[in-house]
Amino acid sequence: LAAPEEDPDALLRRRDASFARVQEHYYAHPPQIERGWRHHLVDTRAQTYVDMVNNVTAVGHAHPRLVNAVRDQWALLNTNSRFHYEELSDFTSRLAELAPGPLDTVFLVNSGSEAVDLAIRLAQTFTGRRTILAVREAYHGWTVGADAVSSSIGDNPRALETRPDWVRLVESPHSYRGKYRGPGAAAGYLADVAAQLAALDDAGPDDAGLAGFIAEPVFGNAGGVMLPDGYLAGAYELVRERGGVCIADEVQVGYGRLGEYFWGSEQQGVIPDIITVAKAMGNGHPLGAVITTREIAERFAAEGSFFSSAGGSPVSARVGLTVLDIMRDEHLQENARIVGAHLAARLDELAKRFPTIGAVHGLGLYLGVELVRDPVTLEPAGAEAARICDALLAEGCIVQPTGDYKNVLKIKPPLCLTVEAADFFADALERVLSD
Ligand code: PMP
């Protein structure tokens, strides 16, 4: 290990001097991370941490098989998808096989934001209309299009006032703290979707009509909140009745993380028209994809050709293939199911003893611990969540809050997390809550 810098804040000052500060870092006094291994991180003082936050590193940090595959592919060939090479077709056919039903056609890009942007353009080109319906409190990325459909005030306090005119927001279908709760909640939220769609019919020129609807199939940004049963099925039906296209943003919750399901949309029992995927797919290498039907993809030719310089490059495709091979050979989706269920049970048990825990959300290794000041009013415990995260850092666990009120501990570790590491985290959380 390298010797730590003498002044622990010197590197932070250098960071701030040249890296735009709006690109925030975790913690006021963050550890300087030097290496990663599986679900562990090690800092320059040789302190180790369990990484409970990095959902991108799905197969774990520094996976030797991935390292070797990337090194070999770089040494052999890296070019772009205008050239003809095997890795591209191998990867897109694997993705098409994994995708549900008629989704058999793949675009390869470099990030979740790019995938969402492209999905929006596909929906708009396919329908010849502009309006996208999106869910309040969601986050879909930073590019112009992906940002437009993002309305989380936790990420951008002015988000609700600044959406462009082609974006319409529906109620956040939040089964825990939303407007409608309990078994019949979906009906309330669907009435809101129907009202938004009816209002669209009365609005402006033809091209202002409905192009599509975008939602995460598990409410990731809100902290892994499951959507009310029947919500996506009902919303997709309403959207399709009006010729709209249904986009499932699987960037966070899809790709095996839920354990029981490879895609979040399976949990809701729906088949989207377009799926966006990124993060886990590249294990940290910039990879994103849009998976759709041949018909929707072909209609995009109206926009000319489509090209992404590094999207689907031999190295990117090799990374994507190797990540899928590792997930299959190491049974990581199954591990997410088993370890996720164990961790959820531990957290549920803590929730019974500590009233600060209002709810444990999520499935598999996408969990959220929602902290409240009052179990009746559900007043969010945002400041407490921040303090708990700081205390957990001292205990050797890296976890961060999310949601509009930053009061949900978002638990999304590498999928190779062990039962021992899950217990280490739950024990640490128990100590911190007791204190
Ligand atoms: N969609 C969702 C649901 C996301 O969570 C994110 C990133 N947090 C994105 C899209 C954007 O992905 P990226 O950061 O790779 O651009």
The level 1 CATH classification of the largest domain is Alpha Beta
Rounded mean pLDDT score: 95
In order across it, which strands form the biggest sheet?
4-12-11-10-7-5-6
- Terminal CA distance reads 33 Å
Give structural notes:
The protein is of the alpha/beta class. The protein has two domains: 10-59 and 331-434, Aspartate Aminotransferase, domain 1 (Alpha-Beta Complex); 64-329, Aspartate Aminotransferase, domain 2, CATH 3.40.640.10. The protein is built from 13 helices and 17 strands. A seven-stranded mixed sheet has the order 4-12-11-10-7-5-6, sandwiched between helices. Strands 1-2-3-15 form a four-stranded mixed sheet. Strands 13-14-17-16 form a four-stranded antiparallel sheet, covered by helices on one side. Helix 6 (185-201) packs parallel to helix 7 (231-241) and helix 11 (332-353) packs parallel to helix 13 (419-434). It starts with 9 loop residues before the first helix and ends with a helix. The structure holds 4'-deoxy-4'-aminopyridoxal-5'-phosphate. Belongs to the class-III pyridoxal-phosphate-dependent aminotransferase family. It comes from Leifsonia tongyongensis. This is Aminotransferase.
Q: What's the short story on this structure?
A:
With 435 residues, this protein is of the alpha/beta class. Helix content is 37%, strand content 17%. The chain is globular and about 60 Å long.
Topology:
Elements: H1 10-18, E1 33-37, E2 40-43, E3 48-51, H2 64-76, H3 86-98, E4 105-109, H4 112-127, E5 131-135, H5 144-148, E6 167-170, H6 185-201, E7 210-215, E8 218-219, E9 225-226, H7 231-241, E10 245-249, H8 264-267, E11 274-277, E12 288-292, H9 294-299, H10 314-329, H11 332-353, E13 357-363, E14 366-371, H12 382-394, E15 397-398, E16 400-402, E17 408-411, H13 419-434
Parallel strand pairs: 3-15, 5-6, 5-7, 7-10, 10-11
Antiparallel strand pairs: 1-2, 2-3, 4-12, 8-9, 11-12, 13-14, 14-17, 16-17
Helix pairs in contact: 2-10, 3-10, 6-7, 11-13
